[in-house]
Structure formats: C-alpha cells, structure tokens
Backbone:
C-alpha cells in the first residue's frame, strides 16, 4: 500500500474595495496596494481507505458558514466527507476575514463566496492530481523569535513542526507543511494598507525557493498570547523571522532519519462544549452609559483607564491608527460599545455553553489538531506533554471563529483577550474552565486518529 497525495493552489487576493481585518475599530482599512498575493492552498492525502484534506487560507479568519459552504463544494465534487476537510487561516492582519469580527473590518459577502469557491477549487484540483508519495515528518525548536505578550516571561510554544510530501520515486518534495505559532503582525505595522501574507507568506516563499517545485503551506499555531518580537517591525529587520524559520526548516528536513512512515490517513471530529459566563446587566449597561455620555459630551478624557482598558493592548497605537486623531479613536470605541450592547439584548436567555468543532487529521506520522480559537500557548504546551505524539501540529483559526481562548491569568485580569474578544464575537466570556474543556476535546480527537 502506497500513500497518495496531491497539492494545488488558487489565488484569493481581494478585489478593489474589500477591507483588511484586525487593526483597529472602524478604520475602514480598504487596501491600497498589493504587496504580495493571497492564496488558498490544498493538500489531499489518502491511504487507499480514507482521504483527508488540509486547506490553508491566507485570511485573517473564517466563520462556520464559510467552512460549511467550502466543505459542501469539495464533498460534492470528490465524495470526501466534510469531517475530513480542515480549513485553517494564517491570521494575517493584512488580509480580509470571512464572517469577521465587529468593528475591525467589514466583510464583503461577494468576496467571501468567491474566496470559498477558490478554496474549494484548490482542494478539488489537489484531489484530481494525486500521485504516489512518501511522507516525512520532522520538528525543531526555534526559540527567541517570539514573546508572550500577556505577561512578563510568559511561556511560548516555539516548536516548528514540518511535514514533507515527496515524490514516491525521486523523493523530491511536492509539498512542505510548516507549523509555527506567532501573531503575524510584522508587516501590518510596516505596511498597514497593503495586502500581504505577512511572515507566513514569507516562510512559504522561502521554502519554495529552497525546494524548487515544492508548494509550501503555513499552518498557524497557538499564538493567541504570542507575537513575533516587536523589534522585527523595523524596515531593516522584518525578514528575520522568515529567514530563521526557513533555515531551521531546511536544517531539520536535511538531517532527519529517512525512515519509512506508516501509510495512514485518518480524521476525527467532535463538538467541544465550553463553559462561559453570562454578562451581567451592570457590565452591559456600564459600557453603554459611558459610550453614550462620551458621545453627547464629546469627552475624551481618561478613556485609557475606562473604555479603553480592555479594548486595546496598546492605547496609543489605537490613536495612531486613527491618524493621530484621539477624538476619532474614542468615538470609534464608543460606537463599538453601543453596537455590542445592542446585540446583547437577549443575554438573559442565551445558553451559557458554547459548542464548537474540534478536529484532527493524520497523515503518516503527522497529526494536525484544530480548533476555531486564538489558542493560548500554555494550553498547547500542555497538550504536547499529554498527547504522547512527537509530530503534532496545532491548526488554530480553523473551521470557524470563537475569538481568543485565554487561560485563567487573562480571564482574571479581564484583559483584551478575556474581556473584549467575546464582545466582538457576540459571545459570553470564557471561564477558567473553558481552556481545559477545549484541551480535553483536542486530546480526544488526537487519540482517535492515533489508533491503528
């Protein structure tokens, strides 16, 4: 029995007028230049019995509707079951979103539908182009290029995991999957009005230059609390993360033991039930009262300590992103508070359990485990410890969007991740038990695909 695989790519660069996502409230950041194009890239693998699809998207995020539509298109053309199709985003903040987040970039329904069809087309073409291959898994630690932005000396998941799919006869790489976790906002700081794949795209370009003929895919890992070092936003240094990651990848791929990996393709999917806590009436009404008062009185005093405390990690940057106009920035935040409280009028009758998909696919020795959150690194480190599987990739921003999934530290601090993210996702806040419930679900699907 021989592993079969195919890879294909389609462009999803937005047309004129589409907003980029995730850089501030109501900025109307319609792109001005295309620095580098966006892609949907698909890898299809089968072991003669089961088939799985990995679809990487150069989008900030996607929602459940985008996932469902794309899976249905792929399933109708190929017969691959939807639960075996994984969609995951690079999370570039120089890209649009599909089914996005309140206030941080308007979505374009026509673009969303087109991007979904392009993504499905990439998967269908990859399915049509399958050929005999060999899979090689590897990993290497790449420390000191990222940091935990939520606390001094906080942990990060610095593992770079790799999957190389090579021609069965020549073993020359046809596809290389790279998995690393750090917020891709390096080029956003330098070129906020440009379309770009940011560091994930630079890594893919670097790998494709190192391995001519291969198609590279970047799977975004656990980076809800992790950024690349801020020093890399210097115009002279923004290439350094990519250079270090590509060098580490080529070192790892060049030195691994060329042993035969099992011809196995598996997939598993469950619904995780995450506890949340209901907003209190006072929390909702306090936000609304302050927003209304500031707008009526044109008051921008002391906003960093009140309305802006959890709305932004870096208040002065929020002013800068509004062209240095502090009044405009404050009014945008007030608008947000009016809109989210309008949307939460039914808060007393909503269910407190959030149901969300957790998925895993296995290709040879590599397991990819996915969820829809901005996953915090302590959870990923715990899963690595408990899963008992060396070649493990985390696919975050996958198959939907539920915002940040913070740990107990950020929940207690009522931080941006713990307190603001639920507002722009139209959700209740997570609790200190939400992360452990997600980790349990992820370990369950990992165990399911580890079985022979």
Residues:
């Amino acid at each position: 029995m021989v592993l079969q695989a195919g890879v294909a790519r389609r462009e999803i660069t937005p047309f004129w007028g589409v907003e980029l996502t995730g850089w501030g409230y109501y900025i109307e950041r319609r792109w001005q230049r295309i620095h580098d194009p966006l892609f949907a890239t698909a890898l299809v693998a089968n072991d003669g019995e089961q088939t799985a699809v990995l679809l990487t998207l150069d989008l900030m995020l996607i929602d459940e509707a985008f996932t469902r539509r794309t899976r249905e298109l792929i399933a109708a053309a190929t017969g691959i079951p939807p639960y075996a199709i994984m969609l995951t985003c690079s999370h570039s903040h120089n890209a649009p979103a599909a089914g996005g987040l309140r206030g941080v970039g308007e979505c374009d329904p026509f673009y969303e539908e087109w991007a979904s069809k392009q993504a499905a087309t990439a998967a269908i073409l990859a399915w049509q182009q399958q050929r005999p291959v060999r899979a090689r898994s590897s990993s290497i630690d790449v420390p000191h290029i990222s940091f935990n932005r939520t606390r001094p000396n906080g942990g990060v998941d610095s593992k770079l995991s790799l999957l190389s799919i090579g021609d069965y006869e020549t073993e020359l790489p046809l596809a290389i999957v790279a998995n690393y976790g750090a917020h891709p906002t390096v080029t956003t700081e330098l070129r906020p009005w440009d379309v770009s794949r940011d560091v994930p795209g630079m890594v893919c370009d670097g790998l494709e230059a190192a391995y001519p003929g291969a198609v590279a895919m970047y799977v975004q890992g656990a980076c809800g609390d992790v950024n690349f070092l801020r020093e890399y936003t210097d115009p002279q240094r923004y290439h350094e993360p990519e250079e270090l990651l590509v060098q580490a990848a080529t070192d790892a791929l060049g030195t691994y033991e060329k042993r035969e990996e099992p011809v196995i393709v598996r997939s598993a999917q469950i619904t995780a039930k995450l506890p949340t806590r209901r907003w209190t009436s006072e929390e909702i009404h306090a936000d609304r009262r302050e927003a209304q008062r500031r707008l009526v009185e044109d008051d921008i005093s002391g906003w960093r300590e009140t309305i802006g405390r959890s709305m932004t990690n870096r208040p002065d940057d929020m002013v800068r992103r509004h062209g240095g106009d502090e009044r405009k920035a404050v009014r945008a935040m007030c608008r947000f508070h009016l809109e989210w409280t309008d949307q939460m009028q039914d808060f007393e009758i909503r269910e407190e359990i959030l149901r969300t998909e957790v998925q895993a696919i296995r290709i040879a020795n590599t397991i990819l485990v996915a969820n829809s959150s901005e996953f915090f690194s302590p959870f990923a480190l715990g899963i690595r410890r408990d899963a008992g599987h060396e070649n493990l990739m985390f696919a975050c921003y996958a198959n939907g969007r539920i915002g940040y999934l913070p740990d107990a530290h950020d929940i207690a601090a009522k931080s941006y991740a713990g307190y603001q993210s639920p507002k722009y996702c139209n959700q209740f806040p997570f609790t200190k038990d939400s992360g452990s419930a997600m980790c349990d679900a992820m370990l369950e699907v990992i165990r399911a695909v580890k079985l022979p």
